[in-house]
Design brief:
Blueprint (H helix, E strand, L loop, with lengths): L1 H24 L2 E4 L2 E4 L4 E6 L3 E2 L4 E9 L8 E6 L3 E6 L3 E7 L7 E11 L4 E10 L5 E6 L3 E2 L4 E9 L5 E2 L3 E6 L5 E7 L4 E4 L7 E9 L2 E9 L5 E6 L2 E6 L8 E8 L2 E8 L7 E7 L2 E9 L2 E10 L5 E6 L1 H31 L1
């Protein structure tokens, strides 16, 4: 009798397992002595358009049905960036969502999940595109300060509502410290390279970037540099200002003759790009050491005449021009003062 009872319990367990496996395979639910078969809901959804701008309203409408039955009531969950939900009534649903002003541009997936009052479910996915909206332009430089003759590498990046770069044209213009236009180019995502001249004006330069209605300006500094080049031609020593500011340093010339030396010093004031000439004198052939600031040079076998070792500045255009300007300014100031004085006497 115990064996028969055991066999009966075992048979019941096997039957229950078989029913459970069958229910799971058929997407069914067992409740008491009855089986509820869950069905798949067919979901169809449409968007108000395919492309949107940040901040736009996106309207989603759709239907949900099982076979030919459209009278489905339940809940629909829609995910764009966050979850939104609305009710399904008689197989129809509609929802309007406002896109974030900072939503990423590009392709987006819209997921829709539907569940009716009987537990049936369905889902569908849709796509929409968000247009990039240019919000700002940024200027990048390889350095914040440059020496004359240095190389500037600049780029401009236009960023959208989510700070992502946009491939669009940008006009870049370089201005010197006096506001004069030096260079102008149109770039996309490539670098703009500019080699500064050796006499580039010192001071604050800037790059102006323009893309549509977006503008940006980036300043950088060009250093002051006093640089010279020296060479000998015949009995003359030439000094050329290759820097970007007037050269106002003394130059020392050492004359070597059979181990003996004689040193001469000349004060210089050479305008940018100008050249000064020093007439050398002596008797015979000399070795010359020329030094001024960081510049040093050595010359062999310089033949000189005149009998006495010497160095005389021949021409300094900057000094001459400065003298003329000072003289003219003084004359104008004197004439203006005299005229004012005369007018004052007449008024009395």
């Amino acid at each position: 009798m115990r064996f028969g009872l055991f066999a009966t319990i075992f048979s019941i367990i096997l039957l229950a397992n078989a029913l459970l496996i069958s229910a799971q395979a058929d997407n069914s639910t067992i409740s008491g002595n009855s089986t509820i078969v869950l069905k798949t809901i067919e979901v169809d959804a449409k968007l108000s358009k395919e492309k949107f701008s940040p901040g736009d309203k996106i309207r989603i409408t759709g239907t949900a049905k099982i076979g030919d039955n459209e009278d489905i009531n339940g809940l629909v969950k829609i995910k764009i960036d966050d979850y939104y939900s609305t009710a399904i009534k008689d197989g129809h649903f509609s929802l309007e969502v406002t896109l974030s002003d900072l939503i990423k541009s590009g392709d987006h997936i819209l997921s829709i999940e539907v569940k009716d009052s009987e537990g049936n479910t369905g889902s569908v996915k849709n796509h929409f595109y968000v247009l990039p909206m240019p919000k700002r332009v940024e200027v990048y430089l390889n350095n914040n300060s440059f020496s004359p003759g240095g190389t500037i590498e600049a780029s401009a990046i236009v960023r959208d509502q989510n700070s992502e770069p946009i491939d669009t044209a940008t006009i870049m213009t370089v201005y010197d410290s006096r506001g004069a236009e030096v260079a102008k180019v149109v770039v996309h995502d490539e670098k703009f390279v500019l080699d500064l001249p050796s006499d580039a004006l010192p001071g604050d330069w800037w790059i102006y970037a323009y893309s549509d209605s977006l503008k940006a300006r980036r300043f950088f500094e060009v250093y002051e540099e006093q640089e010279i080049e020296t060479y000998v031609n015949g009995s003359n020593l030439f000094i050329k200002n290759t820097g970007n500011v007037p050269y106002r340093k003394p130059i020392t010339i050492t004359f070597w003759d059979k181990g003996d030396s004689d040193v001469k010093s000349v004060n210089l004031n050479i305008a940018v790009g100008a050249e000064a000439k020093i007439e050398l004198s002596g008797f015979g052939k000399y070795k010359l050491d020329v030094a001024s600031g960081d510049a040093q040079n050595h010359f062999e076998g310089v033949s000189l005449t005149g009998g006495v070792v010497g160095a005389q500045l021949y021409g300094d255009v900057s000094q001459l021009v400065t003298g003329v300007v000072v003289f003219v300014s003084a004359v104008v100031a004197f004439a203006l003062a005299l005229r004012i004085r005369k007018k004052g006497l007449k008024a009395e």
